[in-house]
Design goal:
Elements (H helix, E strand, L loop, with lengths): L6 E5 L4 H12 L4 E6 L18 E5 L5 H7 L5 E4 L5 H6 L1 H22 L3 E7 L24 H24 L2 E7 L1 E3 L11 H11 L5 E2 L6 E2 L1 E3 H13 L5 E5 L5 E2 H12 L6 E2 L19 H7 L7 H16 L1
Length: 327
């Protein structure tokens, strides 16, 4: 599908990821970008920079109200299905979170079928692999949910269901789709709802306030951090490709320990503070492992995608955005 001249809808368009996808679509010549959001989690500030573009259409709507999707999808070529509840908000309101992630995604697909939409890019997650204790995650690795906290297991299962709803609608109705499984997404417009991204933004906030950052365990826990601009580029590449019916890891492929993340923030801020190590049993956690080894070779081979922004450069951009917001 051609991006230039195309018309696209982003559910959750006022979110961290949704707003960056919108910017990428506009830069690549999309004729119209519709942002559907109920603003329960997204914010107007996230899309302030593009609201003045005549190609952008903001639609206050909810993916749980199928009639609003029918109206919003008239004449649309492709959908970026971003709207979802992450682990933290889902743990606070599991009934609504599962409703959004499962029934909401089914509504998006049903409306797409009704409107003749050609392709859907589904925002999935590496959560679909769970926590097995193994290293290296090819896309055919099954979900190991037993070691996860309940909220993490529910979120992971909702993404597995979302991917299989896409598979079902492709099988029955011929709707093309690609599922993109993100690792920990971070960057400008960072929110406080991502379990693992919180280590970055919380540490920065503490350091900025003159307090030592607090880390669990001994700080050796690792995560794979992927810059939101690289995620947006992966979405647009997937939409513009001829690929359909596939799932891809959208990851850096680099294990970064919490100690390394905090050292980077301390260096970039010029702080002499040192981290404090303290476990909080009340906090929701998804994985706690010393090695991951996520693989991204499939995305590079079939989509021509690989990350371009290093963790240090991404954190530098996040800090610059945060400091600009505080002025």
């Amino acid at each position: 599908m051609k991006i230039s001249g195309g018309r696209f809808l982003i559910t959750g368009g006022a979110s961290l990821i949704g707003s960056h996808i919108a910017e990428r679509l506009l830069a690549d010549g999309a004729a119209e970008v519709r942002l559907l959001d109920n603003f329960s989690l997204g914010t107007a500030a996230n899309i302030a920079a593009i609201e003045g573009d005549e190609r952008v259409k903001l639609i206050r709507g909810d993916i749980l109200r199928t009639n609003e999707l029918f109206d919003a999808l008239e004449g649309v070529d492709g959908i970026f299905a971003v709207a979802a509840y992450l682990t933290l908000p889902l743990s606070a309101n599991p009934m609504y979170g599962l409703d959004v992630n499962v029934r909401g995604m089914n509504s998006v697909l049903e409306a797409a079928r009704y409107r003749g939409v050609k392709k859907i890019i589904f925002c999935s997650s590496v959560a679909v692999y769970g926590q097995s204790g193994e290293v290296g995650f090819p896309e055919d690795r099954p979900l190991a949910w037993q070691a996860l906290q309940p909220a993490g297991a529910l979120y992971a299962a909702s993404k597995v269901i979302g991917e299989n709803l896409c598979r079902l609608y492709r099988q029955k109705y011929g709707i093309d789709y690609v599922a993109l499984r993100y690792s920990t997404v971070y960057g400008e417009r960072q929110h406080y709802r991502g379990v693992n991204a919180l280590y970055i933004i919380d540490a920065y906030d503490e350091i900025r306030a003159g307090k030592p950052p607090v880390l669990p365990g001994d700080g050796s826990e690792v995560h794979d951090y992927i810059y939101v601009g690289d995620v947006a580029r992966a979405n647009v590449l997937a939409m513009g490709s001829e690929v359909s019916g596939e799932s891809f890891n959208i990851v850096s492929g680099i294990d970064e320990s919490l100690n390394d993340v905090v050292k980077t923030i301390l260096r970039l801020t010029g702080s002499k503070l040192q981290p404090v190590y303290r476990d909080d049993p009340t906090k929701v956690r998804f994985t706690a492992t010393a090695e991951l080894g996520y693989r991204r070779d499939k995305a590079e081979r079939l989509l021509g995608w690989k990350p371009e922004v290093s963790l240090e450069e991404g954190i530098r951009r996040l800090i610059a955005w945060s400091e600009g917001k505080q002025r």
